[in-house]
Amino acid sequence: MSQAAAPFGRLERTLAWRYLRAKREHGGASLISIISFVGIFFAVAALIITMSIMSGFRATLLDALLGGQPHVYAVVNQYTEAEAESIADKIREIPGVTSASPYIEEYVLVTANGRKTGAVVRAMRNEDLSTLPFLQDHGQAAIDAGFGVGRNGGNTIMMGAFLAAGREGLGVIPGDKIEIITTGTNASVMGATPRSKAYTVGEIFSTGSVELDMAYIFMPMDQAQILFQSKDHYQMLDIRLKDPDKTQEAMQAIAQATGNAVRMYDWKSQRAAYLNALKVERTMVRLLVMVIMGIATLNIIVGVVMLVKNKTRDIAILRTIGLGRGGVLRVFLMVGTVLGSLGAMLGMTVGVLFILNIGAIEALINLFMDGGKVFDAETYGLAHLPAILDWGDVFSTGLYALAMSAGVSLIPAWWASRQDPVSALRFE
């Protein structure tokens, strides 16, 4: 008998389970309890799906941005090629630095097929193509197509996918000709004219970021030095790190190794507003959905209160045969907590399954879109809807729903435990 009456023992669990299973006409869980269960389910699933998609956005955007731009920028335009390469050699020896590649970057006007658009030319050496993580073959396909091959590096260039063939691009494919017009000028009998030259598209690349793929053209270094009149000079060093988050430590080490020979800045300073916006947005969305979840769990109070009112006679009888106030409190606490727990578990399951199959779900939704996509790549800046399942977010969401359910259930459970059995039986 003492085992059955133990806190959260068999007797209390049996009573709680019996009240949950009882039909409404027998004084069981009301429609409001079912509504609270459904509300918690939707809130938990929504929070998991939302946070996973936002994590996917952040990771995918940062991967794309960091794949197409340096982790640390070092200005070397005041040095000769030999001096800049000597500095780069010192930087490569620093622990945590994976590469230090010279480059030149200039804004240009590009024309092809009667279309014109602005672009950014980045000049690189063939041996440095392997430092670009989005080139799966380390740039071998571009080299095979003629990139950096021939006199003065040849006339073959690489273009971003959306600049080449996007909705607002030039409509070119590998083998087509484009004309690049620079901000520099050539003197002639007709006066100063913009410097320009025709190039052949050898390879089209994709970084995963539409912002970069709409802007960048890669050109052999020797050819760019002639086009931009930067012979025997580089402009910058593209420094890549094992951990892109440790840029401050890396810049301090570079300054010590080079004797403060170069001016530096990192990708975070370039994207500070962008990163802050992602952080604020993630925090606000989490708070909003947690408030919605809190509202959903409040319905448990109403459901358990109605259950207590329906079970007043049962409570009085249980009290007279020896069940204490603590036992009554635990019975109805379990009722509310189980409602919330079941909703949370179902929401977690649905949320996880949604994220694991998000590609198929996106494709299915696209079938019902009239002439478009639910997630247009050129509009949103990414090639697909990204999502990363963070199990920490999944379990923390479930625990939050469980804690909220137990917290709100405590109020009606305490009220049930304060019922006077004598008064209850007299009025019954």
Automatic annotation (TrEMBL):
**Pfam families the record matches:** FtsX, MacB_PCD
User: Cell membrane: present as a keyword of the record?
Assistant: yes
Keyword Cell membrane on this protein?
Answer: yes
- UniProt-recorded name of the protein: LolC/E family lipoprotein releasing system, transmembrane protein
The Gene Ontology biological process annotation of the record reads: lipoprotein localization to outer membrane
Entry's Gene Ontology cellular component terms: plasma membrane protein complex
**What is the protein's species of origin?**
Hyphomonas adhaerens MHS-3
Provide the ABC3 transporter permease C-terminal domain boundaries: 288-421
Q: Which family does it belong to?
A: Belongs to the ABC-4 integral membrane protein family. LolC/E subfamily.
The transmembrane segments are 28-54, 287-308, 328-361, 398-416
Q: Which InterPro entries match?
A: ABC3_permease_C, Lipoprotein-release_system, MacB_PCD
